[in-house]
Amino acid sequence: MLEDRELNARPQAAARGRLGERLRMQSVFLGIIAFAVVLFLLVQARFILISLAAAIILFSLTADAITAVGRLRMFGARIPAWLASVVALLLIAAGLTTLSAVLLGQANTVLATALSYTDRSAQAIASLFSWLGADVEAAILQSMRSIEIGSYLTTVASQAGSLLSATVLVILFVGFLFAERIWFRDKLRHLYGDPERADRVGVIIGTIMRRVNRYLMVKALVSGVTGIIVYAIARVSGLDLAVAMAILTFVLNFIPSIGSIVATAMVALIALVQTNDPVLASVLFFAIGIVQFTIGNVIDPMLMGHALRLSSFGIIMSLAFWGAVWGLPGMFLAVPIMVATMIACSNIPMLRPLAVLLSREGLPEVDTGAPSAAAPPQG
């Protein structure tokens, strides 16, 4: 009888194994389909999602300040939270509008200058290969002239024109986020039905906001100093578009690793096109490169501290993925999204291995000591 039981158990075990394998395959296929659907939605709704991400970051940067202002007293009375929110929204709207106007003005200046320097830039780039022979230089010059630079510049101009509509959408999103923050903590508690779990989620959100805020503030400070130095070098060298170079350096430095290299190369290329002097362009390239290396590898990590414990390879992969999905704005948002993903995954046991892979030393920090900045103080 024991042998009969063993004979009957073997087919059952085999059937369970086949069923488990089918379930695993179905889970894999469903995961692939879900990823494809999410990727499709990310691409199709990129304009709205990018604007929403920018609005969330602005809200995160100002939420702590509004909370602090709400604790102040004037004439013996506490400043209402709604009044602080309205003032902050007006300041954000004014700042974003001014920034958009400045960027559009500089973009128009750069585009107009680039069109006038189109032929000279092709000759300047081709002259860099003159040491390979006249035939190679002529071939490169012919290849450069065959590129329709005007069409590319027109495309860039059309993308810059959409900046104002994106600014309006970001301001609207920020306004609604300020209005919703009053009930954010209550919504979390009603959503989870467990005050402790809701508070835990609020702490995780607060951690994400603090880490992203510190990263962005340090990056803004470091990028601003770098832009000022580039402006000074360009003015001393007698180059045109010094302001545009400084703004370009400031903006591109928010893209880790790649941005500073591209900004340095762009400044050197502009110098080569304007002066047609390879020696001056090389000196500028190395001088600005030294500045970028010193600030990016010494001052930046010293100021950042442990606020950003991300894998370098993970940052490059995040830049590649979000750059492919959302273009240049995706590259600016890649690091904040990666920080949020790592912190969220580090608090979910099933996803903690992903957080370990995204962290620098394999030990993602979990900050659980402060309340969420998204919710105003109660009472």
How does this structure look, described?
The protein is mainly α and 379 residues long. It has a domain at 209-372. 81% of the residues lie in helices and 1% in strands. It has helices at residues 2-44, 46-71, 81-116, 118-127, 134-146, 149-161, 163-180, 184-192, 195-236, 242-252, 258-275, 278-304, 312-326, 328-346, 352-358, and strands at 73-74, 77-78. It has a two-stranded antiparallel sheet. Helix 3 runs antiparallel to helix 7, helix 11 packs antiparallel against helix 12 and helix 13 (312-326) packs across helix 14.
Keywords, separated by commas or semicolons:
379 residues, disordered C terminus, mainly alpha, 2 strands
Q: How far from one another are the termini? A: 74 Å
Question: Mean pLDDT, nearest integer?
Answer: 77
Q: How many strands, which pairing sense, and closed or not: the largest β-sheet?
A: 2 strands, antiparallel
Low-confidence stretches at least 5 residues in length (pLDDT < 50)? 368-379
Helix content: over 70%
Helix/sheet category: mainly alpha
Question: Percent of residues in beta strands?
Answer: under 5%
The dominant shape is globular
Radius of gyration: 27 Å
Order of helices and strands: HHEEHHHHHHHHHHHHH
Number of helices: 15
Q: In order across it, which strands form the biggest sheet?
A: 1-2
What's the β-strand tally? 2
Please describe the topology of this protein:
Layout: H1 2-44, H2 46-71, E1 73-74, E2 77-78, H3 81-116, H4 118-127, H5 134-146, H6 149-161, H7 163-180, H8 184-192, H9 195-236, H10 242-252, H11 258-275, H12 278-304, H13 312-326, H14 328-346, H15 352-358
Antiparallel strand pairs: 1-2
Helix pairs in contact: 2-3, 2-7, 3-6, 3-7, 4-5, 4-11, 8-9, 9-10, 9-12, 9-14, 10-11, 11-12, 13-14, 14-15
